[in-house]
Design brief:
Shape: globular
Oligomer: single chain
Number of helices: 18
Bound molecules: iron/sulfur cluster
Strand content: 5-15%
Structural class: alpha/beta
């Protein structure tokens, strides 16, 4: 027998080892001495011995053990098939429409700083997009339904009110779902319109970067100087607008971009959120997103640090400030599955991360007013990355599109042999292309181990207490995951991973 190549081992303490099967998503804790013995006799282990031993049997079923490399490869191929079928079954085409590339803010970390021409769609162009182009695209890509992301620049700007109105009007008549990604500053001016189309708006994402003083240093109006005395701060208006939306029962995701400038003040910010919106659990969700600089545009002022550094900071604070659990960490991509199991008691089944972001993995098309179609939001306004054109003749360039769509962890040479691959997804594609198709490895191991180093005690306490009450004779094998059915597990167990069918 062999141990699968997608297995990560981590020593939790002298008695326990954490196993993460990144391919199936299974996570388990095994007794150290049991596991060391198993590894020693692994090569000679026969199927019969496995069948006679409950622990070995469970490890086999959960995808940790294989008879040989071929069996493991078959298993991987089966899982790839599940992913691809799931992707094909997705009925949705997602189209991001940027009514304009202009913006009323000048955020310090904006990745669109390099966009010189703040072009916009005319009403006539929006009419064409909404009446024919999206439907054509839907047919071309064999999809049945459409989701629209309103993006930019900033989409909710008064000069483009009529364009937004037309998008909402046409979406309502065609049954498209809308998500609005906005800085939140002019939401009040669009409130009436938003309320009239409430039934097709699935959510609005607004960015708030922390408490007033910090937010106002980062998310600023163009004319305002950067500094604490800034009297043109955007915080108050955005917070009032979040109130307006939540009062009207519009679902809002509040995104907080974090780097070294605001991370230490997260606990106070979490308290502010609980005090102000603690009773709005249904309408408001909160998420943290690391500030990145994939295009190398930002000054080297020390604020942008590797993700592992942010993870270290967050989890230094985590125990002392339970309110931090208010934030979901899904945008810390490498950790998202592990954190959801250990911190949020998620039981959802996860597919391996086949790709890093929507640019490569989804039917995601960005319609930009520079007359190009893109896959990646940060590639907007860079014709080199255009995958099609809008006017006068609408087309998609399949070859260019495939550069993005065919990029997945099992296709990339370096990533296909990486055991962290199914957590990571192969890193940012734009960075990959910018660097002449070289992988910019995202330090998955460092990020994961940084998290585990901080949380190992809690993991042992929380999950072994539960596993001890398992109705099993085994003292060696202690499953964390939905294999555990004891009472203590209710609401506690994590994912058991995909079924391996073996
Ligand atoms: S980018 Fe690095 S960590 Fe991620 S899958 Fe590729 S080799 Fe592994
Ligand atoms: S490829 Fe994905 S992660 Fe990279 S810049 Fe584009 S959208 Fe962001």
């Amino acid at each position: 027998m062999i141990l699968g190549k997608y297995i990560i081992k981590y020593k939790l303490d002298s008695n326990n080892i954490l196993l993460i099967n990144t391919l199936s998503g299974a996570i388990d804790i095994v007794d150290s001495s049991f596991f060391v013995t198993l590894e020693k006799k692994l090569k000679a282990l026969t199927k019969k011995e496995i069948n006679d031993n409950k622990e070995y049997q469970t490890l086999l079923e959960r995808g940790y053990l294989y008879s040989n490399k071929e069996e493991e490869e078959n298993e991987k191929n089966k899982i790839v098939k599940i992913i691809e079928t799931t992707m094909k079954k997705n009925e949705y085409l997602t189209v991001a429409i940027c009514p304009t590339l202009g913006c009323n803010f000048n955020c310090v970390y904006c990745y669109q700083k390099d966009i010189k021409t703040k072009s916009y769609f005319t009403l006539e162009q929006i009419n064409l997009i909404m009446s024919t182009l999206i439907e054509e695209l839907k047919i071309m890509r064999g999809k049945k339904k459409v989701k629209i992301d309103l993006f930019g620049g900033e989409p909710l700007l008064s000069p483009f009110y009529e364009q937004i109105k037309l998008i909402l009007e046409k979406s309502a008549s065609r049954g498209y779902e809308i998500t609005i990604i906005t800085n939140g500053y002019e939401v009040d001016k669009f409130l009436e319109l938003i309320l009239s189309y409430k039934e097709i708006i699935s959510g609005i994402q607004i960015t708030l970067d922390g408490l007033e003083e910090i937010h106002n240093r980062r998310r600023i109006l163009p004319a305002s100087p950067r500094g604490e005395k800034d009297n043109r701060g955007t915080f108050k208006k955005i917070v009032d607008n979040i109130d307006l939306l939540s009062k009207n029962k519009i679902p809002v995701t509040v995104r907080t971009n974090i780097d070294m400038e605001n991370i230490n003040r997260l606990p106070e910010y979490a308290d502010f959120i609980i005090n102000r919106w603690g009773d709005k659990r249904k309408q408001l969700t909160f998420g943290l997103a690391p500030v990145t600089d994939y295009k190398n545009l930002l000054p080297d002022d020390g604020n942008i640090q590797p993700e592992s550094e942010l993870v270290r900071k967050i989890f230094t604070l985590y125990d002392r400030y339970p309110n931090l659990k208010k934030f979901n960490l899904d945008l810390f991509r490498i950790l998202s599955h592990i954190v959801n199991v250990f911190e949020f008691d998620s039981k959802r089944e996860v597919l391996p991360r086949y790709y890093f972001c929507q640019a490569t993995g989804m039917e995601y098309y960005i319609l930009s007013p520079d007359n190009h179609i893109y896959c990646c939001l940060e590639a907007i306004d860079n014709e080199k990355y255009s995958v099609g054109k809008l006017f006068p003749d609408f087309y998609l360039d399949e070859e260019k599109l495939n550069r993005w769509h065919r990029r997945n962890i099992f296709e990339l040479e370096q990533c296909s042999t990486c055991k962290y691959g199914p957590l990571c997804g192969g890193g940012c594609s734009l960075q990959f292309f910018e660097k002449g198709c070289k992988i910019s490895c995202v330090e998955s191991k460092k990020i994961l181990f940084e998290y585990l180093n901080f949380r190992k005690k809690e993991i042992v306490n929380k999950f072994l207490n539960c596993a001890k009450s398992l109705n099993t004779k085994s003292q060696n094998y202690r499953p964390v995951g939905h294999a555990c059915t004891c009472d203590a597990c209710t609401g506690v167990a994590g994912t058991g991973g995909l079924p391996t069918n073996r």
